[in-house]
Amino acid sequence: MTLELASSQETVAPRAESPLAVRGMTVSYGQKPAVFSVDMTVEPGKMTAIIGPNGAGKSTLLKAALGILTPLAGTATVYGKPVEQQRHRIAYVPQRASVDWDFPTRVVDVVLMGLYPQLGLLGRIRPVHRARAADCLARVGMEDFATRQIGQLSGGQQQRVFLARALAQDADLYLLDEPFAGVDAATEKAIIAVLKSLRDAGKTVVAVHHDLSTVPEYFDNVFLINTHRVAEGRVEEVFQAHHLQDAYGGRLAGAQMDALQLS
Amino acid sequence: MSGSEFVPLSLVPMLIGIFVAVACALPGNFLVLRRQALIGDAISHVVLPGIVVAFLLTGMVTTWPMLLGAAGASIIAVLAIEGVRRLGKIESGAAMGVIFTAMFAGGVLLLEQSDTSNVHLDVEHALYGNLESLIWLDATGWASLLDPEALATIPVELPRMAVTLLFVALFTALFWRPLKISTFDEGFARTIGLKTGPLGLGLVIVAAIAAVAAFDAVGSIIVIAMFICPPAAARMMTNRLEHQIAWSVLFATLAAVVGYVLAGYGPLWIGMRDSVSAAGMIATVSGVILGFAAVFGPHRHRGAAAPAA
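Predict the joint structure of the above. Result:
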């Protein structure tokens, strides 16, 4: 608690503006912490990649910040207020593998789930809602699949449906967990185009990312994590060999490092 | 069969069978999709010791003490399952298996040791209930349905099950969207502010209410079957949850009606003299429906048809 208080006092100003500010976040699944005392301050209107080795706590950090997991300690604020009060401004895209795609529902029904905060328990789905769902599907190039059962889609198509659901939420902050995992090249291009259009419209995008080679091309900012925060900032400043070796603990071979166009 | 025979003897048990089947199948749809189908099995077993203890305390087979005993046993079981799961660090299916078999066995032992010879409380009753005995003696025909005097003597299990079904249906309708969203994608559900923990607990409690209310009339066999068989069969008929619910209600009703008729008249048709347990036959029919759905259901093969990107 003391740690949390101390850090929140010294960073009041950036927290208030930040779309997502995390302080002292600590999460444990057992004896060993998965995320330990992590601070993160996301810059508004930018695309930020959360990168780090497998098991570094990238997804865990996002889930704890959103309240999907209960942290041992730490706080998260969204545009300066507690997450609970800002849910309408957040759109979260979970890992595709985290859900059962055999679930009996259609593509359009998944996108309509993004409109639940508007519809409520019993609100009727009106043509305006259907039009919105269709529009979001069109933005990810899935308009022809609206009435397909979700289990009949390829991995890339499923990921696009998830993105369409997030678009339907019309949020200010988009948080994506490994949006490019196991998707085809066409889907990756389509997704990054949508994310960049969101950023260009003033939205903030944060994505857990694992492909180091595309970081400079896709993202503005980088957050490096390996249980602890390693580094945070602009790609050109932070995406450097020594930070990466810190985060990956020497697991990156020299050849891999050379292949990355490090600044 | 004429109304004067059907109404007093078969109408009430058949309706109770339908109400029980549908009341269990509705939450069963979500339990099956959440891979929690075993919960229904667990609840329907653990109510036995609760009912026996209630009987031992009151000395009577009366509704409210038994329902309270059953509810108490369900709560103890849910806590014990959670305790075993956490302390033993084992998966919940194994914890459920340990707790519900142990509690059911304890109930059987209690029942054997206590003097229940003069009441209709025994292991067979716990398993199969006494659906056939719920007859409406004062009814003389269809007209009795409009006769307040005759209606007053209708077996109490019928209105009790009707109210239970109404409650289960209302819960399903009201929380339809949260249930659907959180069953499909719990993480997303939490980020849009749905309270997935209380919602999941509510679903289990509603299932427990259906199981406990059904237990006295029809026993645990039918409850277990109806939580799983109609929803599982319905899943193979459609790829939409809305339609799956409708199919499960249809299958549950079909199993109740066909099972009841087969139990009462089937053995006579093949030259045997006695009828067989209606609850057992209803459960069997629901299993047969599941078998047919598995062989002929249009959506029994899934995943294989996924096209390449």
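Chain A touches chain B at residues 63, 66-68, 84, 87, 90-92, 94, 98-100, 102-106, 109-110, 113, 116-117, 119, 121-122, 149, 151-157, 165, 169, 183-184, 186-187 (CB under 8 Å).
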